[in-house]
Amino acid sequence: MSSKTILLRWSFVLLVSLLGLIFSLHLSISDNALDLLPEQATNGDIKKLGEMGLVNRLFITLTTKDGYYSSLSEGRQQLKKSVSLLGSALDSSPNFSFVLSHLPKEFQGALLEHVSMYLPYLLEVEDYKKLEEIIRPEGVEKKLQQAFSLLNSPAGIALKQRIQNDPLGFDILGLEKLQSLRSEFTMAIEDGFFVSGDGTSCLLLAESVLSLTDSYQARKIDGELRQAFANNLPEGIEARVIGTLPHTLANADTVQRDLQKLLPAATILLALFLGVTLRSMKAVLVFAVPFLAALPAIGLVSVIYGQLSGVALGFGIVLLGIGVDFAVHLYLSLSEASGTLEERVEQVSRPIFFATLTTSAVFLILHLSSVPSHRQMATLALAGVLLAVCFARILIPTLFRHSKEMNQTASASVQTPQATKKVQVPVIILFLWVALLVAGGFSWPKMEYNGDLRVLDVPSGKVMEDEQRFASTWGSKGEQLFVIVEGELEEALQQNSQVYRELVLNNFKKFQSFSPLLPGTLKQRENFKLWQKFWRDHKFHFIPNFKMSAGRYGFSESAFAPFVNRLLETPAQPSVQRTVTGPLSPLFSSMLKEIDEDNGDSGANTLGGSDNFAGKAHFLAMTTVSAEDGNLAGLQAGLGKLPGVYLIGNSSWRAEVERSLRHDVEFLSALAGLTIAILVAIQFRKLAAVIAVLAPVLSALSAMAIFCFFTGRLLNMMHLIMGIMVIGLSVDYGIFTVCSRLDGANEEIKTSTKAVNICAVSSLVGFGVLAFAEHPALNALGVTVLVGIGLAWPTAVFVSPRLLSILRWGRG
Amino acid sequence: MSRLFHFFSIYCCLLFAVTISSFDGLTTVFASQQGNETSELTALLAEVEAVDDKVQSFHCLFVQEKILALFDKPVVFKGELTVERPAQLRWEFVSPIPSVLIFNSDKGVRCNGNEPPMHFNLSSDPVLKSVAEQLWLWLGGDYQSLKKSYHLKRKAALVLAITPKDEAIKKFIQSITITFNPETKQPYKVEISEAGGDRTRLQFSNYSLNPPVDEIVFNKCDKDE
Question: What are phi and psi of A790, to 5 degrees?
Fold first, then answer.
């Protein structure tokens, strides 16, 4: 090969890589744990939870350090001051959309005013039974006596106006509706602050604008929080944060720790192994060439997708590593076998073409996955493998510019295809292989999938301790369901009222809904009709009786004129805008969100920041329900009839993810298996060869099934990704082994076996080392390769040739 | 012309001088009056506080008369008051309708007749918190600290008038007038004028200073339990 040709070839490849690098620079990477979930799950439920701010919500507990303050009241004072300061600091940051540190001063008054003013629109059928009790003569007598006492007590001055408006305590019926807003957390509201039972902790809620499932953004928020803690908390107050943030950070730290520990180990082991086996500096180039394909592949993917998941990028490059196998086969064939350069290239081209075809088919099939990051990964790996094969074909022959560098000592006389000869492999190995397949077939149906993201979660000791402290301070919420309704404001409030009705109908007692305090317009009208009917029926008896009783306590004739007028007049309907943006906004902010559709999926706004109340803006209203309460089936059936209502529960959501993943695993594995079988059948056209090629794949799948059966491991999304890689690698081992047996001479068999050995060992060292990772995702990856390749490799080396030999021999 | 101008200048100078001296005189009179009032107020507060410093607790009887637009005629309640400074107070009506209100630091209990006691926390009950603040205003004995939120004025020898600075308090209370007992220097009469013209008059008697007080007085409505 002339120097000019070599220069041209390298220039071309480097130019393509450079172009790829330029395109890659525009790539936007999304490092989000949700990228690992099926589209249906993330587009539906998780998206809605994200829009409600639940995914990016932080619960910050400030606690006084034991013994730091001289008295509980001093500690409590410092605590409240710190919460105020911290709340203001976070509120002023553009990275937090909603911060609830304490209720505003005017909150209680505003709440009373709201209930008192709109009581006729809030009371429901069951409230009128209680009202009927209150307006009985004995009930009136009792309440008036209480009012008389209260007016004459030291509190009389402050309560006089309230007693004039509501001497019988009707408003209490409205205030009872606050019960529906009570969370399952155990806390007291002191001066508007959320204080724990023992008075040593205060709770603060904050919602991040940045995605907390994204480690980069989570780190940014963590930095801001630390800064805010340092600036606003005195020495005697400590802060603990729970929510998505600490989990994301703990996982990112674990992965980083694993990679820092394992990557150098893998690199050293690989270098040692290749140094011993290949004994040439060219080997470094052989391993580098396919990775030159990574840049244009990433560039291509960035043009197609615009944004690429970090997971897809990482694992796509790993999958692209399959291209190394082709380069190794080509290199060994050229360096160790006999014949001219062109002859050797031609001879090895056939198995490389077959292997590329099957690998590409597997990656094409991965495009049918319901997990978006799998599809991006498949595109990246497909482009990368195809480019890697091309680059290897272009560049590796340039390493052998003089034919003397090739093995000229190889005997040209040995040309007999070896497959016709009986291969000396002990029969016991075949029996063992059959036993492996039988055990695999037995274990396969017993494999279970776990779609819960928590299996890939490694919370640190600190995270777990903080969560335990949180549960002991505030109580544990247990399994929760979220009912989210979507629509224009009126529609959302009306649907939210329907959800509330369904909860009551199905005997749910533990739930959090703002509907009783802010029902939809239709529900308000319905309630008001009840009020009007009630007083139409009772006013003629009640009002004279009431005035007579009041007179007995010395009250003047006009003392309760505001109260009587209230019963007879029609008050204005509650103004939604005023209610949700006024002093009561903390009640609604975490449960009613406006969706900023321009901002896509992360565009939930806190209330009050928009003028769209009268317009067509979309809103989400949420109700949280304890899953261990009431008739869930009835609720599901009832909510099923309502449009725009989402019932989201951890268990149902997990079930959906599992269903989706199970479908992916079964459908994609079957399709990949069938496609590979068809392609191998078309390529080799002989049953013996087809079985021999597929033998390593069957071994890998059986090994994985048996491993899961014996260790009790549940499959997760990582196993699926790496399972596909293992299938791709295993079939390649089969193809190279069988091709060399069918077409090659002794040298070629030797070379091919050596190449398979090198490829398998480098995969085992490179990926298998991850089986020692602490992080479950990396561990799953390592274990899958270790087990799959660990069995596929000896099968390709020992079983495939034997099978080929027996079957061909058997057929004569 | 120049003479006319000269006279005019002299006239202006004189006028100016007279104006300045009148102003100066007025200011002097005003300042001296204000100074007198301030010193009298200071003397009154010092006199009351000197006794109060020695009074850690007291018990007394009281009669409350409420003149409210809500009632056809004034309503009279009788009761007992027990105070243990700085944070314990028991306000008990014995007739015509018995009731008890206890403040014990930031907690408290309220009883009305035979109804079960209602415990409360001042941090979570803004109404009772403001009631406690108002009561401690004239029962706490620390009158100097009132100056932050109230205008204080000495109306007579042992009469102190308090008017709130805060607009929110003004909505309820116009002024409080406290008349001190010449001997005990404890509040003898208290009159609270409300914004709408309603009034509350309290008259205290039978003072017992620094008596032994059982803790149960500030914990339970029924002292005999």
Answer: -55, -35
CA A113 to chain centre: 43
Sign of CA dihedral A721, A726, A732, A738: negative
Going by their DSSP bridges, the two strands B75-84 and A96-100 should be labelled as unpaired
Q: How far is CA A208 from the centre of its chain?
A: 17
Whether the Cβ atoms of residue A213 and residue A32 lie closer than 8 Å to each other: yes
At residue A252, does pLDDT exceed 90?
A: no
**CB-closest option in B66, B134, B192 to A152:** B66
* 8-state DSSP, A795: I
User: Which residues on chain B are in Cβ contact (under 8 Å) with A188?
Assistant: 121, 123-124
Number of residues assigned to chain B: 225
Complex ipTM tops 0.90: no
Contacts of B65 in chain A (CB under 8 A): none
Count A/B contacts: CB-CB distance under 8 Å: 79
Asked whether the predicted pLDDT for residue A355 surpasses 50, the reply is: yes
Verify cis geometry, omega within 30 degrees of 0, for the bond prior to B96: yes
- Mean pLDDT across the stretch B170-177? 88
CA angle A375, A303, A293 (to 5 degrees): 75
Q: What percent of chain A has pLDDT over 70?
A: 88
Rounded to the nearest 10 degrees, the angle between the axes of helix A717-743 and helix A687-711 is: 150
Q: Which residue has the higher pLDDT, A299 or B141?
A: A299
Q: How far apart are CA A197 and CA A724, in angstroms?
A: 53
DSSP string, A228-246: HHHHH--TTEEEEEEEHHH
Compute the distance between CA of residue A208 and CA of residue A220 in angstroms, rounded to an integer: 11
Phi-psi region of A424 (alpha: psi -120 to 50; beta: other; left: phi over 0): beta
- Count of helices and strands (H, E) across chain B: 3, 11
In chain B, residues with a C-beta closer than 8 Å to the C-beta of A145 are: 97, 113
Residue A210 CB contacts under 8 Å (≥ 6 apart), including other chains: A56, A95, A217, A218, A220, A221
pLDDT at A744 over 70: no
φ/ψ (deg, to 5) at B62:
-150, 160
Each residue's pLDDT tens digit, A265-295: 877 887 788 778 877 777 777 777 777 888 8
Find out whether A752 and A736 touch, Cβ atoms under 8 Å.
yes
Residue type at position B12: C
Q: Which of B135, B194, B198 lies at the smallest CB-CB distance from A154?
A: B135
Residue A57 has φ and ψ, to the nearest 5°, of -90, 140
pTM: 0.73
pLDDT > 70? residue A484? yes
Sign of the Cα pseudo-torsion (B73, B79, B85, B86, in order):
negative
Residue A65 per-residue DSSP state? P
- Per-residue pLDDT, B11: 36
Cα–Cα nearest to A356, from A380, A331, A390: A390
Show the 3-state SS of A289-329.
Answer: HHHHCHHHHHHHHHHHHCEEEHHHHHHHHHHHCHHHHHHHH
Beta carbons of A616 and A488 less than 8 angstroms apart? yes
| Count of helices and strands (H, E) across chain A | 31, 14
How many Cβ atoms are within 10 Å of A632's Cβ, its own excluded? Answer: 17
Contact A642, A507 (CB under 8 A): no
User: CB B135: neighbour CB atoms within 10 A?
Assistant: 17
Q: What is the three-class DSSP state of B189?
A: strand
Enumerate residues 6+ apart whose C-beta is below 8 A from A401.
A1, A3, A6
The whole-number pLDDT of residue A246 equals 92
- Please write the tens of the pLDDT for every residue from A101-128: 988 877 878 888 888 888 999 999 989 9
β-pairing verdict for A307-309 and A28-30: parallel
pLDDT tens digits for range A289-306: 777 888 888 888 888 887
Question: Using CB atoms, which residue from B99, B105, B192 is nearest to A153?
Answer: B99
